[in-house]
Write a structure and sequence with these properties.
The chain is 38% helix and 15% strand. By secondary structure, it is α/β, with parallel strands linked by helices. The chain has a seven-stranded mixed sheet, with helices on both faces. It has a four-stranded antiparallel sheet with strand order 11-12-15-14, with helices on one face. The chain has a two-stranded parallel sheet with strand order 1-13. Strand 6, helix 9 and strand 7 form a beta-alpha-beta unit. The longest helix is centred in the first third of the chain and has 21 residues.
């Protein structure tokens, strides 16, 4: 069984005191093998990649390129479709820029894009790209549960291009999306559909393939934020049906500051870079630049080399443990947590209760106690949870009608004892607030 036996792989759990870490949905803990891989880069072959024609430079390049291969294998992709970024937020923002710079918003369909990569100080200036409104209107469709990292770039894009932004709602009295209205929201005017694979508030995994099917019928592009899911459930990007998928390394045992943007090769080949600089060019003159192929065209400047290597090591580690095993363990803990919390008077659970659809997240409210107070008292008891709107304010405040929620999130290093500590801490908070 995972849990206790796996804790030895994580240095933070050797602090010598009980520590129930239930905040993986914010960031996971890091196993020693990932730290060792990053340390090896800094101490044995610290050099920039794809530049130095000397041994340590070549070693760094090989390790970085191998990390891309590992990530591609892990998500069912081709290495050339994997772009390293600074994280999911960077991926989301960069992708919006790539689509906008390339005229994708104007045209709506990848096949209508120019295949040229030449840039003359941008190639497309703002004046060169008509808004979608000028081409018979247009809209972006997303959901009521998106993370701010996905939602806000789309909001800004919609404002810049004068596009309608619509949101698939939750079903009545449910944490699930209302799939009955998908076809009503996604129409011939829809250019982009963005849906997260799993909610970082309720834990529910969405039927991305179903939504993608409706989007592709009208020629819309599909973006999927898989940050809460990758490393917690098996994810194959090709089976999702999305055109772009992104996620962060730090929620799947990797380091912070590294993320992945995956895109279908046939679409990536038609896109302009989202960020400009060195390392992405074939030739530069004072007037223009020509760009490299994919994925190099999208990785301007010196990347987070150690971070990519660390992410590759995290993938190796997760594959060794087995993602299916991880999900089974998390599901067992999640189910126990829901049952245990619902047995405490005054506690309201706000989470997906079908374990085949939950990625290991249980949000909850305690009657008469603000979530921040719950988190504070639990923290003093050695139980780490998160409280707030979890960068999903429209979901928490609008769709669920709450000011904030407390959230416990589980991973394969958690144990049933962690849940017991969570329940004890909640009961202590209730005692404190009775006084």
């Amino acid at each position: 069984m995972l849990g206790t036996s796996i804790k030895k792989d994580f240095p933070i759990f050797s602090k010598g005191q009980p520590f129930a870490y239930l905040d993986t949905a914010a960031t996971s803990q890091t196993p020693q093998v990932v730290l060792d891989a990053m340390d090896a880069y800094y101490t044995k072959f610290r050099a920039n990649i794809h530049r130095g024609l000397y041994e340590v430079g070549e070693d760094a390049s090989v390790a970085y390129d191998e990390a891309r291969v590992k990530v591609a294998r892990f998500i069912g992709a081709e290495p050339r479709e994997v772009i390293f970024t600074a994280g999911a937020t960077a991926s989301s923002n960069m992708l919006v820029s790539m689509l906008e710079y390339s005229g994708m918003i104007k045209e709506g369909l990848p096949a209508k894009l120019s295949s040229g990569y030449t840039s003359a100080a941008h190639q497309n200036t703002k004046d060169d790209i008509p808004s979608v409104e000028s081409s018979a209107g247009g809209q972006i469709v997303t959901t009521a549960m998106e993370h701010h990292a996905s939602l806000i770039p789309l909001q800004e894009l919609a404002k810049r291009c004068n596009i309608d932004l619509k949101h698939l709602p939750l079903a009545e009295d449910s944490v699930a999306l209302d799939y009955s209205v998908v076809e009503k929201f996604i129409t011939e005017k829809t250019k982009i559909v963005s849906v997260m694979l799993a909610s970082n508030v309720t834990g529910i995994s969405n039927d991305v393939a179903r939504i993608a099917g409706a989007a592709h019928k009208v020629g819309a592009l599909v973006i999927c934020d898989a940050t809460a899911a990758v490393g917690h459930m098996p994810v194959n990007v090709k089976k999702l049906g999305a055109d772009f998928v992104y996620f962060s390394g730090h929620k799947m045992c990797g380091p912070t500051g590294i993320g992945v943007l995956w895109g279908r090769a046939e679409i990536l080949e038609k896109l302009q870079p989202g960020v400009y600089g060195g390392g992405i060019v074939e030739e530069v003159t004072l007037a223009r630049a020509t760009y490299r192929g994919i994925p190099e065209r999208f990785e301007a400047g010196t990347p987070n080399i150690a971070g990519a290597i660390g992410l590759g090591a995290a993938v190796d580690y997760l594959e060794k443990v087995g993602v299916e095993n991880i999900r089974e363990h998390s599901n067992t803990l999640t189910q126990k947590a829901i049952v245990s919390l619902e047995e405490v008077p005054g506690v309201r659970v706000i989470a997906e209760k079908d374990m085949t659809k939950n990625v290991g997240i249980v949000s909850f409210m305690v009657e008469g106690i603000h979530p921040h107070d719950i988190a504070d008292i639990l923290g003093k008891e050695g139980v780490a949870i998160r409280a707030g709107h979890h960068c999903a304010m429209p979901l928490v405040t609008d769709a669920l009608g709450l000011s904030a929620v407390a959230r416990a999130s589980f991973y394969f290093y958690n144990t049933t004892e962690d849940i017991d500590a969570l329940v004890r801490g909640i009961k202590k908070a209730q005692e404190v607030f009775k006084k």
